[in-house]
Design goal:
The structure holds 2 protein chains of 2 kinds.
Chain A: H1 10-14, E1 18-20, E2 26-29, E3 32-37, E4 43-50, H2 52-59, H3 61-75, E5 83-86, E6 90-93, E7 97-99, H4 110-118
Parallel strand pairs in A: 1-7
Antiparallel strand pairs in A: 1-2, 3-4, 4-5, 6-7
Helix pairs in contact in A: 2-3
Chain B: H1 2-5, H2 8-18, H3 21-34, H4 39-63, H5 67-110, H6 114-131, H7 134-145, H8 150-158, H9 162-170, H10 180-194, H11 198-209, H12 217-245, H13 256-302, H14 316-333, H15 339-364, H16 368-371, H17 378-405
Helix pairs in contact in B: 2-7, 2-11, 2-12, 2-13, 3-10, 3-12, 3-13, 3-15, 4-10, 4-11, 4-12, 4-15, 4-17, 5-6, 5-11, 5-13, 5-14, 5-15, 6-13, 6-14, 7-13, 8-12, 8-13, 10-17, 11-13, 13-14, 15-17
The chains are: A alpha+beta, B mainly alpha.
Chain lengths: 131, 409
């Protein structure tokens, strides 16, 4: 079975698609991609970039700057680079981008982490299984 | 029985579009002012939402992608963000109105002013969202909302002149004492309510929450083709009850009590009790629908983990958006704004949200990468394009008509 569309169009098949981990958990969107050139000059995708900051940089303009600054404010003082997922972790590209690794191996986004510890995790029943 | 319970997602979704607090009053007001002259808009709306909810549900069942994933993916982050803004504002204004509606329904029973019930109602609704399983929630409030079928019984009991209804329904244009401006405004408002975007957000996300797959396409279609026509039928029954009781007297309808009165006249105290139960369930259900949809749209735009299938702490950003939604709704209501008037203002934002929601659904419903052999047939595409044109016209007309008629007054 074909795992990647051929030819792979970055704008059509990758950008803005949902990223899903090995177990079906939602990781984020493909907010941007990292490209590199092979020795003979052919461009190829090396990584997927995830997060509002990556999205803000891609959009540019006033809207992009606004998204980036909101993201940076939410992320706190430490300026970490956006979540980077090596393209070798991509198992299959369909209506979503499926990874071959579980989400636990990737960095949890700082905003999710903060809300988990300080807000949602403190409400009784937060650990309760949905169903 | 299992089959019957399987359609409650469609019923609950349709309640939010056809008989939530704004629509309960708007349907009744339309009946009181125009008789059944605008009934065709409800029929047009039912077919439209059926066409698009079916596509959105099919995409969700086959590919697992809910509507806002498609919006971002096909329209890109910029236009997607414009849609997010419009949709979020529609959804939030409606959520506030529904919380107010639940409080108003409780006021009808207790006589205690609704503003005192607003924080209680918001808290109880949020607790249900936080703790109750998606399917339990959908069944309880979908089925309880069916208490509104009492309007159909009441209508028969009132013994209306069916001939007059038929004449009104087949004449195009306003009655003598109204003008084309108000007629147009109410037509656009009814149509926009029927096609309101949070219905497809909720329906498709609900399909994902229920883990629909390709095998559930029959369930998906039964949900669409039972749920929305039933919502439309309730809407027409409310309109016809008001047309029978209020139109001859020239009475204006603007409160929930007036919406219930025809049922009390026809069926007495028992009928009144059932109708108040129906109001409560419908507004409560619509509050669940809009409260979740606010979270669904934002989480799906940014790709965050969402939904009630996972532990809440695994979806902390999604649950925060939902929680903030309820706090904003309470704050808005405590400014003593009229909850029923609030839904009318959401029409402004619908103009932005409607075309930008339905276009990507139509495009993806034709994409074999998503749907394989389940792409749209010719009929779905012809209807889809036709409705896209109608939606565009309604969106363009909404704001001028609103300003021209002063919200139809």
């Amino acid at each position: 079975m074909r795992t990647h569309p051929d030819p792979l169009r970055v704008d059509f098949h990758l950008l803005d698609r949902q990223i899903v981990d090995l177990h079906g958990a939602l990781v984020g969107k493909v907010d941007d991609v990292e490209l590199d050139l092979t020795p003979d000059g052919v461009p190829h995708v090396t990584a997927l970039l995830v997060g509002q900051r990556a999205l803000g940089h891609r959009l540019g303009g006033a809207l992009g700057r606004w998204l980036t600054s909101v993201a940076e404010r939410l992320h706190g003082p430490e300026r970490r680079p956006p979540l980077r997922i090596a393209f070798s972790h991509v198992a299959r590209i369909g209506s979503a981008v499926h990874l071959s690794v579980p989400a636990e191996l990737l960095d949890t986004p700082p905003l999710e982490n903060w809300l988990r510890t300080h807000l949602i995790g403190r409400i009784p029943g937060a650990r309760h299984e949905g169903r | 029985m299992k089959r019957l319970l399987g359609v409650t997602l469609g019923i609950l979704t349709a309640i939010g579009g056809f008989v939530d607090i704004g629509d309960l009053v708007a349907n009744s007001e339309t009946g009181a002012r125009f008789g059944m002259r605008l009934a065709w808009v409800v029929v047009l709306g039912v077919v439209g939402i059926c066409v698009y909810a079916e596509m959105a549900g099919r995409v969700a069942a086959v590919s697992g992608r809910p509507v806002f994933d498609l919006v971002r993916e096909r329209l890109g982050p910029r236009v997607g963000l414009a849609n997010l803004l419009g949709s979020y504002l529609v959804t939030m204004l409606t959520l506030a109105a529904e919380v107010g509606g639940v409080a108003l329904a409780v006021e009808l029973v207790t006589g205690v002013h609704y503003l005192l019930w607003v924080p209680v109602a918001a808290f109880v609704i949020w607790v249900v969202l936080w703790r109750v399983r998606f399917e339990t929630m959908e069944r309880v409030f979908g089925l309880a909302g069916l208490a509104l079928v009492v309007f159909v019984v009441a209508l028969v009991g009132l013994g209306p002149s069916w001939g007059d209804f038929a004449t009104q329904a087949t004449t195009l244009g306003p009655p003598g004492e109204e003008d084309w401006g108000t007629y147009g405004f109410f037509a656009v408002a009814l149509f926009a309510a029927a096609m309101t975007p949070y219905e497809v957000f909720f329906f498709s996300s609900g399909g994902v929450e229920e883990r629909w797959t390709r095998k559930d396409l029959i369930t998906e279609r039964v949900n669409v083709f039972v749920g929305f026509p039933l919502g439309g039928l309730l809407s027409l029954a409310i309109m016809a009850c008001a047309a029978t009781v209020y139109l001859p007297e020239g009475v204006r309808v603007d409160t929930l009590g007036q919406v219930a009165l025809p049922v009390a006249l026809s069926l007495g105290k028992l009928g009144l009790a059932v109708v108040i139960l129906g109001f409560f369930a419908a507004t409560f259900g619509a509050a669940l629908e809009t409260g979740l949809s606010a979270g669904y749209t934002i989480a799906q735009y940014f790709g965050w983990q969402w939904g009630k299938r996972v532990r809440p702490r695994q979806a902390a950003r999604f649950h925060t958006v939902v929680l903030v939604g309820f706090l904003v709704a309470v704050a808005l209501l405590l400014t003593t704004v009229d909850p029923i008037a609030v839904t009318e203002y959401s029409l402004v934002f619908s103009a932005l949200a409607l075309p930008l929601t339905y276009l990507p659904i139509l495009v993806v419903a034709n994409d074999r990468d998503y749907l394989g052999d389940r792409v749209n047939g010719r009929a779905a595409n012809v209807l889809g394009v036709f409705y896209l044109v109608v939606i565009l016209l309604a969106a363009l007309a909404a704001i001028p008509l609103m300003l021209l008629t002063g919200m139809g007054s």
